Amino acid sequence: MRDGALGTEQLKIEVEWKPFQLNPPMPREGMNRREYRTRKFGSWEHSRMLDAQVRAAGAEVGIRFAHDKIERTPNTLASHQLIWLAGHYGRQDAVVEARQATRDPFLQPILDLAVPRMVFDRTLLVGDAAFIPRPHTAASTSKAAANAIALGETIRASSGDLDTALGKWESAQLTLGQRLEAQGRMLGNRSQFS
Ligand SMILES: Cc1cc2nc3c(=O)[nH]c(=O)nc-3n(C[C@H](O)[C@H](O)[C@H](O)COP(=O)(O)OP(=O)(O)OC[C@H]3O[C@@H](n4cnc5c(N)ncnc54)[C@H](O)[C@@H]3O)c2cc1C
């Protein structure tokens, strides 16, 4: 029905995306599509016949389905969680828009990492092994380099007392990591959630 017939030009429409999982028993890692469809539809031949029907219907409206390129049937739980989370923060439309504008979307989970110590006798944590600030700082590579450069300078200047020198190095590098980590949290929370 056309918009005019419904009089929708008078209405303010808000779209709410509802997560709905069609296939909850699907294993988390998904399944080989042929195996899954054979089990679901009784035989691979029957599944292919159904695919052909969908392909024909799609072609009529300009959608080209390429079922032969689908190797795995995924579990979609993570995408439902994303839709729910986006709704929780009132950002569903923005997430859908970003998804539609991205040709090959991928998701990179971001975890905050901050260790309380970097020196364990003669074993040291540097770079991402010690602190992973959120990517908003765009400074993790220089932090890793700063850790290493400072370590070289510390060892050169240690005059044989390596324990004391490493203690000073650790204190300065912990401060650097903690500051960057806090800045990443602040920038991330501000740009994505608040
Ligand atoms: C998608 C993405 C985008 C990023 N963009 C930016 C950016 O714009 N700016 C920025 O500053 N930072 C960015 N970063 C972060 C940056 O890449 C890291 O902070 C930086 O590479 C950390 O350096 P690193 O030496 O600590 O660790 P890595 O670069 O991860 O080096 C660790 C090395 O150790 C090797 N390794 C692991 N385990 C073992 C083992 N058991 N034995 C031997 N070798 C092992 C790994 O293969 C790897 O080569 C980005 C990261 C990602 C994932």
Report on this structure.
- The protein has 194 residues and is mainly α.
- It folds into 2 domains: 87 residues, no CATH class; 80 residues, no CATH class.
- The protein is built from 7 helices and 6 strands, in the order αβααβααββββαα.
- The strands form 3 sheets. A two-stranded antiparallel ribbon has the order 1-2.
- A hairpin with a 2-residue loop joins strand 4 and strand 5.
- Helix 4 crosses helix 5 and helix 6 runs antiparallel to helix 7.
- The structure holds flavin-adenine dinucleotide (FAD).
- Flavin-adenine dinucleotide binds next to helix 6.
Which regions are unreliable across 5 or more consecutive residues at pLDDT < 50? none
Strand count:
6
Say which molecules are bound, naming each kind only once.
flavin-adenine dinucleotide
Largest beta sheet: what is the strand line-up? 1-2
- Helix and strand content put the structural class at mainly alpha
- Major pleated sheet: 2 strands, antiparallel
Whole-number count of domains: 2
Computed over alpha carbons, the radius of gyration is 26 Å
The general outline is elongated
Fraction of residues in helices? 40-55%
The helix/strand order is HEHHEHHEEEEHH
Strand content: 5-15%
Question: Between the first and last Cα atoms, what is the distance in angstroms?
Answer: 39 Å
The helix count comes to 7
Mean pLDDT: 91
